[in-house]
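User: Hey, my collaborator sent me this sequence without any context and asked if I could get a structure. I don't really work with proteins. Can you help?
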Amino acid sequence: MRESLYRIKQLAQKLKMPEQQIQRYEAENYRAVIFETLIRIAKVLKIDLEKDAVVRIEY
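Assistant: No problem. I've predicted the 3D structure and written it out in structure-token form, which is a compact way to encode the shape of the chain:
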């Protein structure tokens, strides 16, 4: 758990957003993420969206 919180803190710092926001994004039932933010997070985590991502959109 401690290591997980450290990673959240690092990610939040790199994205210049509060740690609590990162924790909200991680919540399984959280549904309101701006697509641009997802792209920023993917870049920080070095995820190749063209190669590695699967997107599911629910209305």
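In plain terms: The radius of gyration is 12 Å. You can pass these tokens on to your collaborator as they are.
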